[in-house]
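Quick log. Single chain, no ligands specified.
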Amino acid sequence: GYSVQQPQTEQELRGMKGHSVTVLRPVGKAVFDGNTMTVESDGEFIDSGSPVEIIRSDSNRIVVRKLEKEG
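-> predicted structure:
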C-alpha cells in the first residue's frame, strides 16, 4: 500500500534546515535532524554538502531550496 504524509507532518517539515548528502539534480538525498530523506530541488542543481531548507511537501514529494552559506 501507499504511505502518504499526514498534514501535520507537512507543516512540521516546512522550514526545516539541513544539508544535501548527494547531488540534487533535481532529486537526491538530504539530512534533516539526523534523518536522511529523498528530496527534490526547486528546479536548480544543488551540490552535495550544500545547506538546504524544505519549502514545501505534498504526498510523497519534499521540495527544497538551497540556502546561502552563512558568514
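The longest helix spans residues 7-13.
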